[in-house]
Amino acid sequence: MIEVRHVTKTFVKYEKEKGLLGMLKAFFNARKVITKAVDDISFSVKQGEVVGYIGANGAGKSTTIKMLTGIVTPTSGEILVNGLVPYQKRVENARNIGVVFGQRTQLWWDLPLGESFSILKEIYEIPTEVYNQRLALFDSILDINSFIKSPVRTLSLGQRMRADIAASLLHNPKVLYLDEPTIGLDVSAKKKMREAIKKMNQEFNTTVILTTHDLDDIEELCQRIMIIDAGKIIYDGQLSEIKDKYGASRKIVFELKDAWDNQIDLYSIFKVDQTVMQVKADENKLEISFDKHIMNVAQISQVILQMTEVNDLAILDADIETIVMKIYSEGKVNL
User: Fold this and answer.
1) DSSP-assigned states of every residue in 262-308
2) Rounded distance between C-alpha atoms, residue 305 and residue 67, angstroms
3) pLDDT of 153-188, one tens digit each?
4) DSSP string, 42-92
5) Which of 66, 93, 115, 179 is the least buried, fewest Cβ under 10 Å from its Cβ?
6) Are the CB atoms for 169 and 52 separated by under 8 Å?
């Protein structure tokens, strides 16, 4: 569905010195500065995949999405979306894609939501029967009928985002680009948005490219992630694989009946050092973090249960945010 081959995008800007003299110098001899926003990236996405595309601010993900949608032309390389070069066939490409930007809307601000949908129906030449079927489906998932008669400007952020999702899918696009679709939403609204994205993907086999800083979105929606840093893709693969490699740390939190005896040397008992296991005790709470590739929950729990009475315990895996921060700090992924 999407093919990206050795794509690079550079931006040129001209720097000048401060003051009037600097402005005059720049007029005749400005210093040219070339920045690579995207640096020789290649990837492919199959139809029906939901892919998380993540990176820090300025990493190059927004530039990539703009090239995929046809807004920006790459400096070099080739992009195909459903067989089309998006920046050469902008109109045809627009009919095949849907786009949702978290801070912008494609809806008409002062019109009732229903009228915005009607305009989009005419723009995309959607048959009336198909249009009505899709609105009914969107209502069942997104509950849009409860505010469809309200002007868009009066909608809450959560309502507007649900409306934008519906608007982007009215014409049944082959590819849906979601740029921060849950930004600013409360927990309930985020849950509805994620359920809607899942349902649309299952119902229409829509290919979804998701960029987000909310890594809960990634865990809920994506099996595959791509991580871009300084314009280069440093990881492209299964979320489970990177969690296994970089999420080796696991934690057991014991709630004890009595205060933990800090004199007990668990490192000697388990015959490991602090590179493998870390122990933190605070009165009736004992936390043991460990490398799950070397130790396991049963092994640790058995020893602690033999030593003291436990009221409760919790097992925590490394979250995706911790994993991604570790990858950013290293600047590469080795699997």
Assistant:
1) TT--HHHHHT--TTTEEEEEETTEEEEEEETTT--HHHHHHHHHHHS
2) 57
3) 999 888 888 898 889 888 989 999 988 777 777 787
4) EEEE-TT-EEEEE--TTSSHHHHHHHHHTSS--SEEEEEETTB-TTTSHHH
5) 115
6) no
Report residue 192 CA to chain centroid gap.
Answer: 16
How many helices (H) and strands (E) the chain has is answered by 12, 13
User: Would you say 163 and 154 are in contact if contact means Cβ atoms under 8 Å apart?
Assistant: no
Q: What are 129's two structure tokens?
A: 């029967």
Question: Taking the CA of residue 331 as centre, how many other CA atoms within 13 Å lie in the half-sphere pointing to its CB?
Answer: 2
- Please, which residues have CB within 8 angstroms of residue 197's CB and are 6 or more apart in sequence? 50, 165, 176, 178, 181, 208, 210, 221
Sign of the alpha-carbon dihedral angle for 11, 76, 38, 35: negative
Structure tokens given for 126 = 């959607």
Backbone region of residue 281 per phi and psi (left: phi > 0; alpha: psi in -120 to 50; beta: other values): beta
Taking only the tens place, the pLDDT of each residue in 258-310 is 999 878 899 999 999 998 999 999 889 999 999 888 999 999 999 999 999 99
Half-sphere exposure of 239 (CA within 13 A, CB side): 20
Helix axes 128-142, 187-204, angle to 10 degrees: 140
* CA nearest neighbour of 91 among 73, 106, 69, 108: 69
Whole-prediction pTM value? Answer: 0.74
Cβ distance 233 to 41 under 8 Å?
Answer: yes
Report which of 250, 248, 254 is spatially closest to residue 301, judged by C-alpha positions. Answer: 254
